[in-house]
Amino acid sequence: MKSLFLSLLSYSFPSPEFHHCLSLFCPSPCLRPCRIFVLGIGFFSLCFLMTSLGGQFSAKRPGDSPFTARAEVLGVQESRGVLRKISDMLEVIMKRMDTLSKLGNTTDTHRLDELSSALDRIQPIGLVERIQAIAQNMSDMAVRVEQILRLCHNTVHKRKEPVRVFAFQWMRARWTSDPCYAYYGVDGSDCSFLVYLSEVEWFCPPLAWRNQTATPTLKPPPKRQAVFQSDVGTLLEQVGTGKESLSFMKRRIRRLAAQWASAARRLDDKLRHHWREQKRILVHVGFLTEESGDVFSPKVLKGGPLGEMVQWADILTVLHVLGHDLKISVSLKELHGFLGVPPGRGSCPLTGPLPFDLIYTDYHGLQQMKQHMGLSLRKHKCHIRVIDTFGTEPAYNHEEYATLHGYRTNWGYWNLHGQQYMTMFPHTPDNSFMGFVAEELNETERLNIQRNKVNNMAVVYGKESSMWKGKEKFLTILHRYMEIHGTVYYETQRPPEVPAFVKNHGLLPQQELQQLLRKAKLFIGFGFPYEGPAPLEAIANGCIFLQPKFNPPHSSLNHDFFRGKPTSRKVSSQHPYAEQYIGRPHVITVDFNNTEELDAAIREIMRVNVEPFLPYEYTCEGMLERVHAYIQNQVVNSSRTWPGSPPSPFILLPNSSFLSWASNSSSHTSWPPLSALRLLASPEGQSCVKACRSAGLICEPALYHFINIKEAFSALDFQCEGLESEMNHLFPAFSAEHAECGLQQDPLLFSCAGSSTKFQRLCPCRDYRIGQVALCRDCL
């Protein structure tokens, strides 16, 4: 007990008393530690908080910066009971303060023993052990404090002392855990802790005894005009060397350079040479860093997946061609240099302004930024765009909601806005559609393809021999009608999974693969990989794409590949975009297990002639147009606080249930503009994705804010006997069973995805440009 109490005595406080101590003993820049033996209510308030909540804290990363936290608070009555017990103890202890203060720095063990004995008599059984255990695990529970602050948002300004005390004590115990503290001048003295907590982080107010030189307000850099770029030479230099993945990307950039330049000229004419703001953009390709393992680069020449590198090469090119100030990082060292990260493990924040308007990265890069930007990541989250192939739905993205409702996965839970995730295909309206490009044909090439097509030639989509396992029956049926070609990687011996009647070319360079596709009539998918770029490239070269139908659809509930991914999407075929947005005659989707259906499909393919086809959104011009619109118009609000009810964008006509647009709706700032909004109610059990698609529209989550009001229910003729607001990714929605209307409480949970048989969901649908589903008709 004595040792515990002595440790409490030596606790230093960033309180008025402690500041007074500093003014006496450390009047100028701190030369030595300053310690005072004061026992104040601040520490015991913290002890009460930690003790009463003790078992309800959970740690994430021991040793990290302490100021990221979550807690679930005890019931009010229980908390008050514990508080009364602690208060009684404190009252007895405070009566002994005079005796204690007279001891000063002496070693009067007799009087300390007497005081310790008195404390032992009033100490509830087990409390000492609890405090000791909590103290030992303080670094583990430290990462939960941020969410405590959020829970206590309304009172934190009135009761800052426990948080400051905790931060100060954490600094004393852990300042050597990260070199970044020493980088900012922390030397182990109490004064250096105070200076750091008041001048580098936000836990303490400015110190009166410090020389307070006014920090000049940094003006944002002047706006510059973005000018379309046709030369990719500087881009190729920035991409760098040393990895086969980077070499692949550079070859693609060179090969498509002329098409990008031509598309830029067309888009500039379409935009009527309007002034565009140049953005400062960082691209950090996290999955190619050595720290993430970089499993892709070694497989580039061995049949490994190339879809991610195709997309990243096109992202780099589109940002460069649009004329933005671009920096590229494929290592942590480069990331540190571009962001100005202090040396260390990322416990310290960035002190200067973020030198970028936008940061494009992936999930690996996002995790690296979290580790190395520390507290600054939360501050700068709104600048981040995450390239995410399969999409992230809001229910999985919202950390607290995902944890409470079973949506927590190894990905997701970043508390970003849904539109900050950017997908390869437009399958998740909650996210933004980034895409990629396929090579376009000129008229001469199109004519040559139509003349040189071999009617009975098929190419199989599958570079790895494992994809061919179990496909003998299907291939035998196809072989009755067609000559089958493969591009399966092998080193010395032909893969045994590939039947002898298949002509295997081995892994082909991109240009040779293009020539093969320009001859073939059919491109066949075996069901994997999902949603890659190859089927679009085959269709663009005049092939018909034959793919399997999945019944039941593949999802995280029934298929290992999707298990753990932050989406509930049900994939009906190998390539849903090709099935839904292109369709026959270019895309035929059948049940490969139904021999008759498969046989009929092959005979149909033999009869049909198709021309090369490429959706506009996958052309260079289409991608330039889409990304330009995002950069110039898309705004992400980093605040999670509800901004209040917006003005209604519609009115209800007298004695009518019809929706009418308000005459002043166009004055409300919004992108997409409110002129695109079409308010619908989904049937029970249907998501807004399907409800809008059934009406020939697209669900637009950016417009949810305008329909999350009581008037929207009235406009749709719902009679609300009750109106509630809660965190529910299905809200706003109407429950017919209870005649209740539910509003969304947290804007991060606005979601087009999700359905329930209990609710009819309110859906903010919008129109779209033909061939460009990401943009409404008035979005440019």
TrEMBL record:
Source organism, top-level taxon: Eukaryota
Molecular function GO terms recorded: alpha-1,6-mannosylglycoprotein 6-beta-N-acetylglucosaminyltransferase activity
Organism encoding this protein: Scophthalmus maximus (Turbot)
Protein name, per record: alpha-1,6-mannosyl-glycoprotein 6-beta-N-acetylglucosaminyltransferase
GO cellular component: Golgi membrane
Entry-linked Pfam families: Glyco_transf_18
Pathway field: Protein modification; protein glycosylation
Keyword Glycosyltransferase among record annotations: yes
Ranges for domain Glycosyltransferase family 18 catalytic: 180-765
Similarity annotation: Belongs to the glycosyltransferase 18 family.
